[in-house]
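Might I ask for a little of your time on a matter of protein folding? What I wish to show you is a protein chain and, alongside it, a tokenised description of its three-dimensional fold. I should value your view on which stretches of the chain appear to form regular backbone elements. You will find the record immediately after this paragraph:
***
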Amino acid sequence: MKGDRSKGPQVRIDGLYKIFGPRSVEMMDHVRAGMGKPELLAEHNHVLGLQDINVDMYRGEITVVMGLSGSGKSTLIRHLNLLIEPTAGAVVVEGTDVTHLDTEQLREMRRTKMSMVFQKFALLPHRSVLENAAMPLEVRGVDKAEREAEGAKWLARVGLAGYEDRYPHQLSGGMQQRVGIARALTSNSDIMLMDEAFSALDPLIRTDMQDLLLELQDELHKTVVFITHDLDEALKLADHLVILNDGAVVQQGEPQDILLNPADPYIEDFVSDINRARVLRVRSVMHHEPTGREVAGDVDANATLESLIAESGGETDRAYRVVSNGEVVGEIDMADLVRALVPRVSEGAARAS
């Protein structure tokens, strides 16, 4: 589901750097001169957390930031609500650089513009499920009846109607995370920050939570920033995918395009083990102009290549008309599909081999 890009990015990260250490501003000269993360640590005992991050996040889209442990993804998301202050650069939210806000303005932004869902749930154990869900409105001073009505509404929406009087320890991990999502929705903020929100869950529950997020997103059109180290999760959720390594953006863009066109050996390694038939969509492989050849039938533009293989019975000499919302948008040849299933080695990867 694509968002609204007509008004420009809702969140813009511009030239963002973060260096951890007592002389971080001084270290910027070394970093801008080309010193990397290992050298900065070895020679100056400072850690380069983020390096020249430039990312636009649009209304109604899910931006997924992913990378291995230590890549900087959790550091990045904490800059959006200034839980961590940058060494250099800007974080612009709806036209305002939040790095220039005073304490009260920053507190107000966190209360009203952004909500956060944590990996470890962050529920208060001595409060009921309903009280946890209603907490954002309690902080704003909303009266008890109104905030509990709103909390109950979102608990029901995430499948927890009837659990309002339970306590967190009485719920499973997946149910606790549903409370966390309900709490974020109760705040009625436009921007949701989700830091490894599903990574502590069992695989089946994790899949259910991913499906719930996509279902809610189709309905609510939030601007979601989602942190993960799992590529399958990233490809499933992302409208815009940002891949970090050692604090820098290695590649960003539409997930299908990244999968088909890896920028360098690091990305090639990332995508090499993915089940491409299950992830790639017909729209990413199709011809936009009709070829004039006979077609065996119609296929939806968002269907996976795996489903089309099943539809074709494995025959590779067929072509299909591609439709979206009832309109013909292209054609797909099974031979092109087969070629797309073979990972493309980037030029950098080819040189490295």
